[in-house]
Every structure is written in C-alpha cells, then in structure tokens.
Design brief:
The structure is a homotetramer of 205-residue chains. With 205 residues, chain A is mainly α. The first copy, chain A, has 2 domains: 5-57, Orthogonal Bundle (Arc Repressor Mutant, subunit A); 68-201, Tetracycline Repressor, domain 2 (Orthogonal Bundle), CATH 1.10.357. The first copy, chain A, is built from 9 helices and no strands. The longest helix of chain A is centred in the middle third of the chain and has 28 residues, at 121-148. The radius of gyration of chain A is 20 Å and the shape is elongated. The model of chain A has no long low-confidence stretch (mean pLDDT 89). Chain A binds a DNA duplex (21 and 21 nucleotides) through residues 4-10, 13, 34-36, 44-48, 50-51, 54-56.
Chain lengths: 205, 205, 205, 205
DNA sequence: AATGAATGAGTATTCATTCAT
DNA sequence: CATGAATGAATACTCATTCAT
C-alpha cells in the first residue's frame, strides 16, 4: 500500500512548519536557510508552506512567536501561583526557570533576534512588549514587594532588574560562540543571584 | 600632469578597505553588505579589493582582526603599566576601558560575531585565543593577585571572571536591539563591579 | 433543514463561470488572472471549475465563444429581418449595432484576442470561421446587392468590406489605450460610413 | 584559439539586447518571454542584461523606445523636408512611409502595446506624447494647411486625423491575427486615403 | 458532485567572483 | 596595478493543476 501523496492535516501544518523552520534556523541561521529546506524538513511542499506563511519573513516571525509565547505563559503561571517571599521565589522557581533557558530553543531565538532582529522592527517591538518589558516589570514588582515587606533594602537594583537576566543572555551567547570553553552556566546564573540578593539584603556575602 | 599631492599609498589600501567594510557591515550586517559597496566606500574598484582579499569572508575576518587587535594592545598596555591595587585597577582603568566599549565599533563586532561567527570557526578560534582567553586570563590574574595580597577573599569569582564582562556584552546587545529602552549602560557596568568587589571583599554593600 | 429557495442549478454553472472569467479577464488580462480568482468570483470552488473546464486555456476559449455567439446571432437576426435598401440598412441597423461595440464586452474580447490569440490557433480559426468571415461575407453580400439594384457603383469596397469595420476595431483599441484622449467613437464610425457610402454612390460628399 | 569568454563592448550592448528582446517579444509576447532567453539571443549572460536594464519591465520600455524613436525621427525629417501641396504630400511621402509600417517591427510594437500597454501607464503616456499626439498634430497641420490654401474644404476630418492612421492599425492587427486571410494592406491604406481626400476635396470619387 | 489542501515546475532577480583590457 | 564589464549559480515566490476527503 503506497503512502498517499497527500495528507490533509490543516490543523497541524502551521506548527509542523514552524518547528521545522526553527530547527533549520537553529542550524544555519535565517539568511542561510532556504525556504525549500524548511518545507522538506516539514515533509511538505514549498507551495503549501507559502499557503500558511506569505513570506519567509512572516515565517520567521511566526517561529519567534510560536516558541516564545508558551514560555511566557509558563513563566506567568509560575509567578501567579507563588505565595513565597521574594527571595524564596527568586532563588526557587525563578532560578529554576531561568536555568532551563540556555539549553532550550529560546537560546536559538536570542541568537536569531540578534542576527535578524533589526531587520524586523515590528518583531522587535512585539518582543519588547510581550517578553522583555513584561519580564522586567515582573522582576521590578518582585523586588519592590521585597523592599516593602522588609526583605530587601531599596537599591539601584530596583531600577536595574536587567541584572537578573544578564547572565542568561550572556550564557546563551557565550555557549553559542565558544561551546567548548563555556563555564557552567548554572553556576554563573546562581552566582549572579547570590550577588544581587546579598546586595539587596545588605548582607555580607 | 602634476602628481596629485596626497596620493594614496599602496600600504594604506588594506586598512582603508577594512575601514570601509566595517562601516558597511555596521550599517547593514555582513550578509546584506555587497562587496561592491565596500569597494565604492573605499574609493577602490571591485577588482582591486579582490586583489587584497581573496573572498568576502577573508575580508570579514580581516575586519575583525584589524579592529580588535588595537583594542587588545591598548588594554595590554594599560595592564602592563599599572602598579595599583587590584581593586583600584578594576575600579579605575579597567572600568574606564570597559565603559567605552558599548559605544565603540567593538559593539558592532560583537554583533557580527554573533550573527556570523559560527560560520567561521577559525575566526572564532582566533578570537578566543587572542581576545577572550587573554582577557579572562588577565582578569583571573588580577583577582588572584588581589587574593594573594589580602584585598579579596577567594571566591567563586576566581573561576568566573566572566562576571566582569557580562554587563558589557549584555549592554552591547541590549542597546543594539532596544536602543530607546536601554538603561544607562555605565551604571549597569559600575553596579556589577560594585557587586563583585563587595562580594570578593566580603563587605556589606 | 430547509432547502435554499433559489438553489443554483447545475445547468447554469458553466455560464456563471464564463461570466466571472470574462469580468476577471477584462480587469487584468488573461495571463494575470488567477483561476482561483475566477472561481471565487463565480462563487465556486477551484475543483468544480476544473470539472467544467479542463484547463485555463479551455476556459478562455469558452469565454470567447460564450460572448461572441450571442452577438453573432443578434446580428444575423437583424440581417435576416431587414427589407431595406443596402444604404438604409448600413446607415440604420448596422450602424446602430456597430456603435454599441466599443462600449461592450466585445471590446474586451478584441483585446484578449490580440494579446492571447496567437497562442490559440484553433481559437483564431474558430473566430475567423464564425465571426470575421461571416461578418465580412454579410457585408460583401450587402454591398453587392446594392450594386445590383443600382444603389452603388462597383468599387474596390466590394472586395474590401474590412473598411466598414476598421473604425470599430480602431476605436476599441484607441479607447483602451488612451481612454482620456479618445475622440468620439460614434462620430468616427459614422464618418467612415459617410465616406464609404459617398464613395460607392459616386456622390460629392 | 578559443573564443574569449568575455567580450567587452559596453557601447553596443544595450542595442544588442533590445534587438534580441524585440525579436523574442515578437515571437512569444512579453509575458511568455523569459529574460534568460533574451540574454541568450543577445549572446550575453542574464547578469549583464540586468546591468543595463534594472527589470524586465525596463527592458520592455527600452525596446519600445529604441524602435519607435528612429521611426519618429524619420517621419519628422520627411515632414520637414517637403515643400509639396498637402495632397501631394499625403499621397506621396506620407503614404510611402505608412505603407512600410505593417511589415516593420513597428507592427510588433503595436501588438505589444495593446497586450502590455495598460500595465505600463507611464510608457503609454510617453507613447502618447512622443508618437501618437505628435503624429496626429502633424496630420492636423497638414490638413489645415490644405484648407488654408484652398486644396481642401473644411470637414470633420480636420478634427479626426485618426482616420488617416486607422487602416494602418487595423492592418497590423488583422495581419497579425489572420495572416493568411489578410487582404492587401497597401490597397486598404491607399483606398482609405482616396476616400479621405475625395471627401476633403468635395470631389466625386 | 464539491471542496480546498497539496503539489512542484517555472522565473525574475541578486551578487560574489573572474578576467579582458 | 587597476578597472568594471561579464558571468552564472543560487533562491524566494507564484499559480495551474491534482486528488484525498
């Protein structure tokens, strides 16, 4: 019984294609990836791909969104669920979440955003609104709550929540470029957290 | 027919071309830059450019090298010249040097390395050997000297000098992607230095 | 589940499709018209369209035929019905008929034939046999009858009935290309008729 | 001695290419002609073609211009040179010129303009300004001069110089579509001239 | 009969690189 | 040395047509 030449799976196609695209972009970067290769990977014809995504650029944006949105939702859920002290949350669920990032597809996205982002300003805008801004806000809230309930002193960290995510971004890039020489990213992330919390608590470390 | 008074000399050509290439890459990225445009910018014909650089890739590597080497030399000189305590050096010359980076062409290079690096493993190798590795070693030495002469406690920072350069890398990328929303990079870099030194000194911050 | 009150009947489908195709071809020309657009206009799926017309080319031919045949029948009826002198017929019903052409869908067909005709020799053949040849013959008969009954002198027009339709073809094209600058097509057609009849009658004009 | 792979003939290239394009367009029409085929015909690479003509559309426009301009100049020269009566000029040089058109590349252009013109409004504009408008004006002047010096009566022809060119356009198209069945175009053109002059002179014909 | 998801051949355009001059 | 005319491989995107449902 020969395989049918066509399968009709309207529902699944977009996801199958963005998955394939993600894999392809990860390997060769956006520019060097041929639309045809993405199609092949997805087990689909070029024409069908173009039925779902009007251009290669649209595909790229869809990839970013389809991979980022679930992680955002995941993080939101974690934040909403917690009833811990700020420190406990930062050292616990937050750190756990953040340590998964350097090994996840998110790291590919970071690279893609750096390489291709500036050519897609609307994507950057979306990324800022939906990811970066929200993430930084959540951290700010967390720190401020800590200050309010006496866990932390008010410090410059209140205005620089960036310091919490710095090691993640750095790790992703460092690992990408110098795979072999990359230090233990978990340790780097944890250490940075130690530094920050010590600072906010005014403790000796 | 009078000799032009300031004739370009052969020796300057390669530098003129890499300068032009750097400018072009900065504006549009490597892939989107046409060799012809580089030639035009340099006031040179395409043919001549190919006389100096066998391929576009070679040109790219030459650009990286020609911009990185002087900064390394600069930093080496600073290090060699100093006779300060580790803390004084870190807070003084090192911080000064490092704070110039996010606004310098080096930031362009960082972006180029991220976008194009993995396609040029030998370039990455060179970059590691000549820049990253040397920089990290220098920092390690600095920290260890501080430990030896009682300035600092031995801490995890001894093995993670990366923590000193993290904010630079982060700033470069953040500024590149979200120009408008980027916080004061100097402050970020300084704060990180405060955190690290406090940690190493075992002080309250 | 109530029957829709006015259900499209199968028999109407082909006509509905050729109408839609004509409209589409008129707007964008044959090559630039997508089969899918025709289907949409006709309120039909692509698949169904292909059930009635094996190829886009077949569809084109069907369009031509479906629009030309009624006009031919119309003209035939007019000719058969008349009992006038040749001059009266030419100045009356013939002129009336012919003046409607530059504003009618026929003008679209003329353009389509010019643009696409040579790619469809069999269509041209059919067109010659059923339209052009018949029309020219009818005109020849008319002129000869006029000569026989003393209305006209025998002239070169007997062999060149083309002179009667020339202004129609010219008007259609001129109007199509230079809409705004097109002179009054009725006047042009009438003038040509005046010239020809004067010539055939040997009158001063 | 092998043919050199490159020939350097900057000067001649554009004309060689437009000639090749004209031939290709004549055979298959604009849409069906592949840029690559034009290049091949011209003995040139696709890349070089694109060096001279930015797009296929530009090429098309260049073709039109390169073939029309010489004919316009030719006609202008004829008009400027003549010192005849209007009738003599119309029956002589004008008729001679006009009778060459149906067999010349101009006829190809007319077809191309009809098939493709409306997609290139600026080309139509140019064509109107440089060809049609000028031609019609010249004819009007000629007729009016004839009226002024008593050769002709003032008639509707004064405002419809189109009647002079009608048979040319008609002939071109008729010949193109129905090659085999096309009547003697010279005769058609001459007869129309006879009709018009008789009309303007108020003669019996 | 009817649908529209799926196919894949076909094409304009770009750009790194070469080489006659 | 120096030029820039010339090359041609590479690639995003379209659309007539097919076929599983």
């Amino acid at each position: 019984m020969p395989e049918p030449r066509f399968r009709r799976r309207k529902e699944d196609r977009p996801q199958e294609i963005t998955d394939a695209a993600m894999a392809a972009f990860a390997e060769k970067g956006y520019a060097a990836t041929k639309v045809e290769d993405v199609a092949k990977r997805a087990g689909v014809s070029k024409g069908l791909l173009y039925l779902y995504f009007k251009t290669k650029e649209e595909l790229f944006k869809a990839v970013v969104r389809s991979f980022v949105v679930p992680r955002i939702d995941e993080l939101s859920a974690i934040i909403d669920a917690h009833e811990m002290s700020s420190e406990a949350f930062l050292r616990g669920p937050f750190l756990d979440f953040v340590k998964t990032l350097p090994g996840s597809p998110i790291s590919i996205l970071v690279r893609l955003m750096i390489a291709e982002g500036p050519k897609h300003p609307d994507l950057l805008e979306w990324y800022w609104d939906n990811v970066v801004s929200r993430g930084l806000s959540a951290l700010t809230v967390l720190v401020e709550r800590g200050v309010e309930n006496g866990e932390f002193r008010p410090t410059v960290v209140n205005e620089l929540p960036h310091l919490f995510v710095m090691p993640v971004v750095f790790s992703v890039i460092f690992k990408y470029l110098f795979e072999k020489r990359c230090p233990d990213t978990d340790k780097m992330i944890e250490t940075q957290m130690d530094l920050l919390i010590a600072h906010m608590k005014g403790d000796k470390t």
